[in-house]
Amino acid sequence: MRIFEALESQVRGYIRSFPTIFATSKGAILTDEYGKNYIDFFAGAGTLNYGHNNDRISKAMIEYIQSDGIIHGLDMATTAKRNFLEKFSSTILEPRNMDYKIQFTGPTGTNAVESALKLARTVKGRSNVVSFTNGYHGLSMGALAVTGNTFYRDEAHISRSNVSFMPFENYFGDSVDSLACLRKMIEDTSSGLDLPAAVIVETIQAEGGINVASAEWLKGLSDLCREFDILLIIDDIQVGNGRTGSFFSFEFADIKPDIITLSKAIGGGLPMAVVLMRPDLDQWKPGEHTGTFRGNNLAFVACTEALSYWDNNALSESIQYKGNLMYEGLDVIRTTWPELEATIRGRGMIWGLDIPERGMAREITQKCFEKGLVMELAGAEKQVLKLLPPLVIEEELLKEGLAIIAESVKEVLKEREIA
């Protein structure tokens, strides 16, 4: 690890949690250069929904490269882009009766968020945007302004203007109606809340601690936005692309967002980000918002192949089945060790085990890593074990990973008792 310590910036993060040198990967398994296997409950922070080195995706990319296909094309027309647009329209948009224009932004999620915010403000002619407590939308300037975590929001590198934070569902518990708070703030001309151009929200706050919005809350938020002529932006970067069981995470709520941001798994493992917008909102002037790598043709190829998983309901049904296994595994932990005072939150194949005692969740993930499981933390205090395996993980591997978590919890509790 010396070369990384000597040459790589101190900003490196995950390498500190997973201190080994990974060499190969396949499906839901990472293998380090010493030959040790690790079950992956991290999946590139949700990028690898279809697993590491997916055979179908790899084959499509190899064939494209060997045919001298266009790799970099800015926003020029290419066969790879055409094939992606046709596949995305026929497989994702048309069956859901969704009418959206597609904007290709820079390659990461924060680029999509920046584009969405800029577009919303341009269209509405208003600068304020409402975001929610514990929200995470990226770390470039505009996206960072709508991100809640203090760790990222240092005064030295953020403009806090033109963003108003409101409470997410259940932020104050069941007794407080957070949408009623938002309505009151909008209606009261002395509240200090300028009428926003847009509201940006995650249906499940992944980095924020696996905080799950209900269908009723999302419907209420959508209705509120329409009533006051506010654009609703759904950030589906981490929990879209099938993570919750349906392709879009908001489908269960039967809402139609004005703007949707997608990245991470949309590229089939490669950098890619898009903004979906209602056609009437597509008011960009040509070249008004650009990016050198907005045309990642190899990602178009990978995504086009990945979208074939959505030609039928098999993957969706598998996600629901495996998601139930994940919940059941966590529930066994919660009930076996009530002293954890743990709570479980999630949907589909994103689940969190919230352990309130400071530092315990980190000790458990470290123990998991020693035993061959890669898993990250979430939440404001990093108190949530965040389970995010590839959607295509084999059932036995999934169960093995859950068993490692249980064994790690048992050992950490025993060590704490002895200490």
Automatic annotation (TrEMBL):
Coiled coil: none annotated. Its cofactor is pyridoxal 5'-phosphate. GO terms for molecular function: diaminobutyrate-2-oxoglutarate transaminase activity; diaminobutyrate-pyruvate transaminase activity; pyridoxal phosphate binding; taurine-pyruvate aminotransferase activity. Pathway: Amine and polyamine biosynthesis; ectoine biosynthesis; L-ectoine from L-aspartate 4-semialdehyde: step 1/3. It catalyses: taurine + pyruvate = sulfoacetaldehyde + L-alanine. Keywords: Aminotransferase, Pyridoxal phosphate, Pyruvate, Transferase. GO terms for biological process: ectoine biosynthetic process. The keyword Protein transport does not apply. It is an enzyme of class 2 (transferase). InterPro entries: Aminotrans_3, Aminotrans_3_PPA_site, Dat, Ectoine_EctB, PyrdxlP-dep_Trfase, PyrdxlP-dep_Trfase_major, PyrdxlP-dep_Trfase_small. Gene3D superfamilies: Aspartate Aminotransferase, domain 1, Type I PLP-dependent aspartate aminotransferase-like (Major domain). Its EC number is 2.6.1.76. Belongs to the class-III pyridoxal-phosphate-dependent aminotransferase family. This is Diaminobutyrate--2-oxoglutarate transaminase.
